[in-house]
């Protein structure tokens, strides 16, 4: 603080406190929890008697919505009473929702403080009437913690969306709500229970709405993982709570929540994606072995290697039978080698998420260093094998956002066309300007440079910043033509029409034809060198 000149008032400081109140909440090393006084005020609120009292209570409860799982679903029955065309009738389902919000806030969890040095995980889901999401992280002890809950009811038009559009709507809602944490994050995982999302996002036939959403998703660097709804407890609870469905308001039933521990509930989210896709927390060997069971092609090969009989061999396709000697088993893994001299490599089944995890480790991870496709393929193919691996890696590297932003563009340059070699002095002259120099006594800040391409002799003339073609022609006649005659060609990288006017004014009196060559900066090297070194060197 002393080095940065930060001053504090010791009378206003609390040192070594276990937790401190900040903006209506309490912050400690364990995380962020709600203010007990505000929770007490909400829980002690009497049952509303009219819309005004209900609106006041909801306004107070909304302040702590991020501490409540499925808050929008809990208050949905009461929100329906705030509509203008609805008569006030406090029913049992409204009282149940009122009590459920109080109970949820009374047991509000301690939310984890976001740590930008650790990767984020987003869990999202959609039902027929609501969308929900949660932002999660691993803490220092490896536990899964919730950073924030978010959910809302669908608008009437959104309820008519197709299923995959509803899932994309939930994903879009999550990215908007957690934008400050996820935008700029190198790679984070988004979990969904809708398997067709992975193919719907790559479909060549997109609606205008989906095209807009995909354009929005392009701002983020995330990997989409599929997880069945039965394993994705958290987001399903946020979007599928029974009292959230307006079709069940008149037949509301309490469904007890046997698990009040939000941290344990969050643990279920990232224990594993499912048996067919990759999960960051599963051991890689186990993950690959489990994925074989979902790949019919490699599962048949493994069955033959375990029991090499005529029956198991007959179940293989003819090309597979011809190449069966290339396959072998290494414990629960399948290996592939072209011949006896080739090093066996682990076979990766047809699982996009599993392959994406491997390519991410070899390319995107800090140890990978974002190498090109050739080096990434060489490193990955030493240990693993799958068909068309090179094309897979090439597509991954081409779509890497960091490589596109940081690495120079790989475009083909036009071949250089050197100028003809000068054969005598002052037959070919390079011409250029340099501006931005200190003003001289007459206010001129530029220099006109003439360089003989044969002898490299340089002639300089001071010019104003707004020099005209006629003035340049006069300098050409005075410095070049008067001493050396009219050259055969002039090379310049400046505006061609400007120099054409200069040359027309210079040769009109002599009646000669003069060749003009627009060389560009890379071809007019001697004039550029004279512009950069000589005037600036003398100024220095």
UniProtKB/TrEMBL annotation:
A single MF term (Gene Ontology): nucleic acid binding
Gene3D superfamilies: 1.10.340.70, 3.30.70.270, Ribonuclease H-like superfamily/Ribonuclease H
Keyword Ubl conjugation: no
Residue span(s) of domain Integrase catalytic: 414-507
GO terms classed as biological process: DNA integration
Pfam families documented for this protein: Integrase_H2C2, RT_RNaseH_2
Record's keyword terms, sorted: Multifunctional enzyme
Protein known as: Integrase catalytic domain-containing protein
Species annotation: Phytophthora fragariae
